[in-house]
Amino acid sequence: MKIDKTQELLNLASELRWQVGEGFHDTLIxxxxxxxxxxxxxxxxxxxxxxKFSFERQLDQILTSKRFGFPIMILVLSIILWLTxxxxxxxxxxxxxxxxxxxxxxxxxxxxxxxxxxxxxGFLLDGVYLAxxxxxxxxxxxxxxxxxxxxxxEDFGYLPRVAFNLDSAFKRSGxxxxxxxxxxxxxxxxxxxxxxxxxxxxxxxxxxxxxxxxFSLCNGRWPTQILIAxxxxxxxxxxxxxTLLSTLAVILVALLxxxxxxxxxxxxxxxxxxxxxxxxxxxxxxxxxxxxxxTLYTSLIDRTLIVLWRxxxxxxxxxxxxxxxxxxxxxxxxxxxxxxxxxxxxxxxxGLNGVILLAYMVAIPANEIVIPTILxxxxxxxxxxxxxxxxxxxxxxxxxxxxxxxxxxxxxTLLTGINLMLFSLLHNPCSTTIFTIYQETKSWKWTTIAxxxxxxxxxxxxxIVAQLWGLFA
Amino acid sequence: xxxxFIFLNSTLKAILLAILGLPNPTFYMSLFLMLLAASYxxxxxxxxxxxxxxxxxxKKSLIEDVLKQLYHxxxxxxxxxxxxxxxxxxxxxxxxxxxxxxMHKQNLITSEDAHLALTNDGRSYALKIIxxxxxxxxxxxxxxxxxxxxxxxxxxxxxxxxxxxxxxELYESLGRPRFDPHGDPIPTELGEIIxxxxxxxxxxxxxxxxxxxxxxxxxxxxxxxxxKKKLHIGSHIKIIATNNLKIIFESEGQIFEFSTVVASNxxxxxxxxxxxxxxxxxxxxxxNVGETATITGISSECRGANRRRLLDLGFIKGTPLxxxxxGPNQNPRAYKIRNTLIALRNDQADLILIEKK
Lengths: 473, 357
Fold this sequence. Notes:
heterodimer, A: 473 residues, mainly alpha, 75% helix, B: 357 residues, alpha+beta, Arc Repressor Mutant, subunit A, SH3 type barrels, six-stranded antiparallel sheet, 14 strands, 45% helix
């Protein structure tokens, strides 16, 4: 009897489920939300009233207007980048003097006094220590300038307006307006840019921002670009135009990176990522005076030091590897020279050479040590006398002209220069960034895609340039 | 220490010599590219290759497609024969005949004269497949970001792969839905299903007030056309004019015009007098700078994470808001709601209904 009644009730309920239709869950939930809002309204105490026409609205009108919005944005970003690149020179020089010219010789003499075997001395000092010193002196100053400036803008409330202005452009490639911010952050450091994607709350757009961040030319690559542009492109025109032309070339490469960001965002959102959940909402917080000291503190601790620590962890073994491959002989040649000879033909196919490819393979931990590695490998490979410090010891020269001489002696042409600039933009992220991508996504799949996609682009682009060059030149 | 170093050295030497003995990497590169191209072609033509690597699964899929097709034919009170079936499924006649024969043996279908019909077993099998198809569409709409024009094809593939037990798990995890995102009923586990008493839009009279309950997702070209016009399930409409060629109606403050062919793929339910037609209900995207309004609801087309996000931000029935300013390209636009400025894209604002003050 009882069971019959229960079954009857259940049947009735099931019957009624058809009639209440699809949206009753939603109606129910919206009812709960509305009640909650109602109660909150009743118990909320308001003091004073909000003025209708405030200073904030007027500022918003200017910062998001069609006429002034974009020029202001470009101006602000250019100033930050310029301050970073110019401002980092001096402290970088100081740090480099300290690490490479004061502490390094001291450690060297110490090790000879203690009587360390030559290979241990080379491995630890010429390998591990030099790589660490290099990474810190090149990486720390730009980050310590860029991140606080960026965080100040964020704190003031300007950055959400940039995202607001640029959203329609990013929407077209399936991305989020806030990707403009993570992309700019990537110009400082890709690993920090990847961490910054946490501000994007939509899963699909966040993955897009993570995977494409590597197309932002980072601090470790700006010096490479500037050096190579000065040597190979600046040399094309009379001296007083050379700075202008090489600057333009570097800007062009950075813009090409932006282009690739859009292109690959578009491709990703239509292929591998089309099934990821996508939502949009952008809060435009009120403007407020930035809290300078706390900003400095948090940006130094959260962004700069964490990233620097990760870079150091990865740079130390890389230094060791660089020293080892240059000092372990196979047959009558070092491992490095053997590999260079082996890859040379392949590299020339892409307008590059074996030295560049090997340098990018061993310098995965940090883009900062690519140029020193290339110089060291070139000198060791050519067996140039009187230049460099020894096998496996990275070095840099004081003037671009001297560097140019070594590179040209290594068989570099204008094409090699151009393709190195392109390859420096389009290659796998540094291992710090790869590790950070894994930390943020917890997925080997996305980490692999983010690492492999740029290098595929790189080979395609350099191949096309090399072949066209071969046709026309 | 030195000894182990020499040992390491000689091992590395052996490994490297083994590699160096091989030809230039250019060779590997071209090999890699060829493999890449081959695997791309394989993935692209997976369906046609299924016959080679898994003939049983391919046959099962075909049987299930035939059952589904026969069920739909039966529902629309038409009849079909072998030729029409082979045409509708885009399968060669020879293969259709073979599959029909084996279905006869399994007692899934009967044939009178040349007409094919489902047996009871066949009907309940068909309902099982339809259940999986519609549940998967519901899943795609709620839990993933796939565009709605892709749901049908993805569900078409998935319906042959899920077991009944997996379908039940899905049903539970989705909150036991009864309707798929197109407004079609999902058969229950026991095969219960209701027929919706809705009329095609084309046959509604002038001045009728109705609610859109179903948008057919096949054929795809017509479905894409409807999606493009941004017409939503659950919207109230009022017919303005109708003739043999086209139908004009008003919905959420906008005028829509469809040809009769397209309109016959949209079904509506005439509203009775208890349901009030919200004459003043318009879309948030129609609000101009400086205007204020009250939210009356979020369209049922706004689903899953998107819907929750809007609710979390306070886009709740009865909340007042003001349109503050638009971005340089008029998209997105910033709205002031509960003393917070929130920017929404216009396609989101299309799904929020408001009443102007």
